[in-house]
Amino acid sequence: MLDLVVTENNQLNQSYCLIKLTTTDHSPLPEMFPGQFVEVRVDGSPSTYLRRPISVNFLDKAKNELWLLVQAIGDGTRKMCEYKKGDIVNLLLPLGNSFSIPTEKEGQELLLIGGGVGTAPMLYLGACLKEKGFSPKFLLGARSKNDLLQLDDFARYGEVFCTTEDGSYGEKGYVTNHSVLKNTRFSSIYTCGPKPMMVAVARYANEHRINCEASLENMMACGFGVCLCCVEKTSEGNICVCTDGPVFNIEKLTWIN
Amino acid sequence: MDKLAVNIGKLHLKNPVMTASGTFGYGKEYLDFIDLSRIGGIFVKGTTIRNRQGNDYPRMAETPSGMLNAVGLQNKGVDYFVSNIYPEIKDFDTNVIVNVSGSTIEDYVECTEKLLGLDKIPAIELNISCPNVKEGGMAFGVCADSAADVTRAVREVWNKTLIVKLSPNVTDVTEIARAVEAEGADSVSLINTLLGMAIDINKRRPVLSTVTGGLSGPCVKPVALRMVWQTYNAVKIPVIGMGGISCWQDAIEFILAGSSAIQIGTHNFIDPTISVKVVDGIKEYLDKNNISSIRDLVGALEI
Q: What backbone phi and psi angles, to 5 degrees, belong to B181?
């Protein structure tokens, strides 16, 4: 448990903001791996009693900053979007497991598919993959152009492909219809986003025998494996998304059968 | 005895602050956050005779100042607890108490018997109040006769401290408390969660897979406090109070209402260090008010 201070809070569009936080005493932030998340104590008001789980969007080691991409959906996330520079925020971090980085360097074609706020962990994953010598590609899906976020940030770590449902940017349609899937033989796909999107990606990967990991966002109360509320049905029975996940190999999930 | 120490039956607590079953895992999940030796005891996750997968997702709904849960006693069963979990937690420098649940009296007895050989388990808490399993749990706790039956059966095999956890989903909690006291319970703990529900108005469907679930958190505190006070006035055995405690002031309220010890539940999710903060707060309150023992405060409510 750590108190961090807000260094920046930028409104990216009408419903998303990017919050940057650092330590209060300039000590280094704890090590965090792509796919991990934090639990934010919003303000303890009656409508935001529980913490809010938010995935690590990016860890800027040079500036000692943690980035959180937040979509204002309910009272908690709306209040987070109102954070001002200098506000102190209490977090539990880092929580959960992380995406697996391939051990073999040769012949890896890695595709990172994000949809909506689920694009958040893909930025940090892409950065870590690039740092380790891989050349990840990003496939980002949104309703329309205005909902595609952080494109310049993504472009620093790999080639970016987009789909929009209304065709206002990139290819029109869903991520699973994008031509990059037909043009490249991928060895691994990583995905995070709305469940129907992830299920479609998982089915695609399974059909094409591509290794695939998905990051789930089941509702949580605690975030560290004690409330047993965020369970997902798996080949091993009901297990906690917060501690056994949030990242699962799709073979362990019951989506593809 | 130290000013914070209390006894519940044969169970000695270094201080009256414990953590509630279902909110504290097996204690090991909190080792990154607190020194477990600072608190009086931990109540581990509800344990049943067989492995239980629990209810389907979704199992949780946030409510104003609280939450509903419908976990449904997910656990790996008592044999797994004895062989895999107990060895990991038996040397914690605090009381480790097992919450025992079941669907039949035989389940409760058999589960209890499997815990008999564990030296480092000084007490069990009989869960006759879980609202989230269809065929048991709360069924025993809402009727004085069945509460008495299960308490009597377990009392016959368990010679260490026996705590019975009561349901608030009853007309008169004191009737159940007296019934289990008469069958030899050393203590009663209350309240378990209040039965509630939440509806998704866009889908016109219940939020929880089980339709109803158990309400906990600060929103239940006034109800819990009232039931603790009524029970304290109805029985001679010590009462362990819980329900929405989120700060040391709440704990003092429960102690004044008649709790010999307290449990912290849902608030462990929000602040995993809250139990230690409550211990410190109680100690300061005693010092500031020149109270020589927490025992002098139990039921000291003036009316």
A: -60, -40
Q: Are B38 and B17 in contact (CB under 8 A)?
A: no
Fold of A110-215: Rossmann fold (3.40.50)
CATH class of the domain whose range is A2-95: mainly beta
Please check whether residue B208 lies inside any domain of the structure: no
Q: Which amino acid is at B48?
A: T
Gap from A49 CA to chain B (nearest CA, Å)? 5
ipTM > 0.90 (yes/no): yes
Token pair, residue B2, equals: 């130290």
Q: Hey, CA dihedral for B263, B268, B269, B270, is it positive or negative?
A: positive
Place of tokens 């492995």: B51
Task: Report A:139-168 residues touching B (Cβ under 8 A).
Answer: none
**Nearest-by-CA chain A residue for B24:** A226
Look up the pTM and report it: 0.96
Rounded Cα distance, B193 and A128, in Å: 44
In the residue annotation, B130 being an active-site residue is answered as yes
Give pLDDT, residue B132: 67
Angle at CA of residue B170, ends B169 and B172, nearest 5° = 140
CB-CB under 8 Å, B270 with A229: no
Please report, as a single letter, which amino acid is at residue B89.
I
pLDDT above 70 covers a percentage of chain A that reads 100
- Which of B269, B271, B277 should one mutate to test binding to chain A, selecting the residue with the greatest count of A CBs within 10 A? B269
Given B130, B143, B219, B247, the catalytic residue: B130
CA angle B136-B139-B141, nearest 5°?
120
